[in-house]
From TrEMBL:
<protein>
    <submittedName>
        <fullName>Response regulator</fullName>
    </submittedName>
</protein>
<dbReference type="Pfam" id="PF00072">
    <property type="entry name" value="Response_reg"/>
</dbReference>
<dbReference type="InterPro" id="IPR011006">
    <property type="entry name" value="CheY-like_superfamily"/>
</dbReference>
<keyword id="KW-0597">Phosphoprotein</keyword>
<feature type="modified residue" description="4-aspartylphosphate">
    <location>
        <position position="62"/>
    </location>
</feature>
<dbReference type="GO" id="GO:0000160">
    <property type="term" value="P:phosphorelay signal transduction system"/>
</dbReference>
<dbReference type="InterPro" id="IPR001789">
    <property type="entry name" value="Sig_transdc_resp-reg_receiver"/>
</dbReference>
<feature type="domain" description="Response regulatory">
    <location>
        <begin position="13"/>
        <end position="123"/>
    </location>
</feature>
<dbReference type="InterPro" id="IPR050595">
    <property type="entry name" value="Bact_response_regulator"/>
</dbReference>
Length: 124
């Protein structure tokens, strides 16, 4: 990986939105090893409450969370005009209609290589 590749990965953070702290921390560590800047939120409501959002490379979110599901979160940000690439990371099956708004789906437990490949593909 060249220095310019490393810098390009760090220009915008990736947001992880997941109520499962162990998955958030593991995913954060993995992405940092690959040179990504990462910001974690314990829920979609917490993400939305932060008014000082930077631009994100992509949003990684769980589907089933308290207060607001990942799908409801995706619908909300799309309705607000946010076009940030979106990847669901969930242990639950998703319907075709749920997948149409997102750019990716990674099942839990995920394979690190598949997650990194999905991010690299979607965030080009």
């Amino acid at each position: 990986m060249t220095d310019s590749d490393q810098q390009s990965k760090n220009t915008k953070p990736i947001a992880i939105i997941d109520d499962d702290l162990s998955y958030s921390r593991a995913t954060e560590r993995l992405l940092k090893v690959f040179g990504y800047n990462v910001v974690c939120f314990p829920s979609a409501v917490d993400f939305l409450a932060h008014q000082d959002h930077p631009e994100y490379q992509c949003l990684l979110t769980d589907m089933h969370m308290p207060q607001m599901t990942g799908y409801d979160f995706l619908q909300k940000i799309r309705a607000d005009g946010n076009k940030t690439p979106f990847i669901f990371i969930t242990a639950h099956k998703m319907s075709e209609s749920q997948l149409t708004l997102a750019q990716g789906f990674i099942p839990k437990p995920y394979e690190a290589e598949k997650l990194i490949k999905a991010i690299e593909t979607i965030c080009q």
